[in-house]
Design brief:
The protein is α/β, with parallel strands linked by helices. It has a single domain, classed as Metallo-beta-lactamase, Chain A. Helix content is 14%, strand content 27%. The chain has 4 helices and 12 strands; from the N terminus they run E-E-E-H-E-H-E-E-E-E-E-E-H-E-E-H. The strands form 2 sheets. It has a 6-stranded mixed sheet. A 6-stranded mixed sheet has the order 7-8-9-10-11-12. Helix 2 links the parallel strand 4 and strand 5. The two termini are 30 Å apart. It binds zinc ion. Zinc ion (ZN) binds next to loops.
């Protein structure tokens, strides 16, 4: 499995493409790039199987509407589903008069422990609430995508927005830091890190 990082959009959020080893099939993660931009960035790509969302905040769904218009399915935890169409719940009403939304998505609910196949490998969903009630991480063999739950340098996501919960994010961070120390951590903002490096801060 291969992962590409993209840094685009005015809100400093990271988005990713998780691809099979031949780089033909991928999932977009928290997309700021449109499908056309994704295909241009990864020329070998023949199929974008879906969009994996770590949570529903607006800065993680910036280009989601362009995937929905191509009927590319969206994967999100049920607790964050409302955020796709609610500018208050997804916090876009804090920064924009025009809410950032994606109506009409073909939604697949992701739940803790669920496996998502890509090529011959699988990604495992971890439900890690706290930043939002429906925050999830996507765990692969060599990396974990943590959204706004774990950042580099011992930081974690804010819990003062809709459905945030400080006690829950501590439990979720503990669970993530108990994973294999050699995993690379790709978070929603800032640089990548490693589980073993993040343990030093707790
Ligand atoms: Zn967020």
């Amino acid at each position: 499995m291969k992962i590409y990082s993209f840094h685009k959009g005015g809100y400093a959020s990271n988005s990713y493409a998780v691809c099979d080893d031949d780089m033909k099939v991928c999932f977009a993660v928290d997309p700021a790039l449109t499908p056309a931009e994704m295909r241009a960035a990864v020329p070998s790509l023949s199929e974008i199987k879906g969009v994996l969302l770590t949570h529903g905040h607006f800065d993680h769904i910036l280009s989601l509407a362009s995937y929905v218009s191509e009927d590319i399915p969206v994967y999100i935890h049920p607790n964050d589903m409302d955020m796709l169409t609610d500018g208050y719940k997804n916090a876009s009403s804090l920064v924009s008069i025009t809410p950032i939304t994606a109506y009409g998505a073909s939604v697949n609910e992701v739940l803790d422990g669920q496996k998502i196949a890509i090529g011959d490998e699988k990604i495992t969903v971890m439900h890690t609430p706290g930043h939002t009630a429906g925050s999830v991480c996507y765990l692969a063999d060599s990396f974990v995508i943590t959204g706004d739950t774990v950042f580099a340098f011992g930081d974690r996501g804010r819990t003062d927005l809709y459905s945030g919960n400080e006690a829950e994010i501590y439990r979720s961070v503990e669970r993530i830091l108990a994973l294999d120390g050699e995993l690379t951590v790709y978070s929603g903002h800032g640089p990548k890190t490693k589980i073993t490096d993040e343990r030093k801060y707790y």
